[in-house]
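Sample pair:
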Amino acid sequence: MKENPKSDWEERLEAELPLLGHRNWIVVTDMAYPLQSAPGIETIYADEDFDKILTKVKASIDALPHVFAHVYHDREMNFLTDSLAPGIEKVKENIRRLYGEEAKSMVHEDIITRLDKASKLYKILIVKTPLTIPYTSVFLELDCKYWSAERQQQLDDLMHK
C-alpha cells in the first residue's frame, strides 16, 4: 500500500518547524486574509479543507520537543452565527475540539498589531486556506516547551541577588 505523499504546504511546514522557536508565529487563515509585506512574514497557500489544515498544524506543533503554541482567534468570531456567516458554527466547534480553553480571543486588529510588531524581529509563517468565512483565522504564538516563565523568573531572581 502506497503512503499518501505530503502536499507542498505540508512539506514547507515540516521544513520550517525545526527552525521556528520562542516568539515565532504560525497563522492559519481564511481566504481574505491579506498578503502582508513585512520581510519577516512568509505566506504559503494550502488548497485544502481549513479543519484538516488546522488539525495537521496542531499535531505537528504538538509533536515538537522545543515549542508549544499559545492559541488566539478573532474575538469577532464569538459573535458570529450561521445566519450571519454560514458555516461558522462548524469552524468554531472544530477550534473548540482542537484547543478547548487554550484558545483565547482577541480583537482582530489587536492580533494584527502583535503580528506586525513580532515580524520586525521574528518570522511569521502564514498558512492561507481557501475558507471563505470571516474572522476564522487561528494565530499560534510559539513559546519554549522546555523552559517555563516561572523558571525564567527564578533565574532572573537569582541573577539579581
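The longest helix spans residues 50-62.
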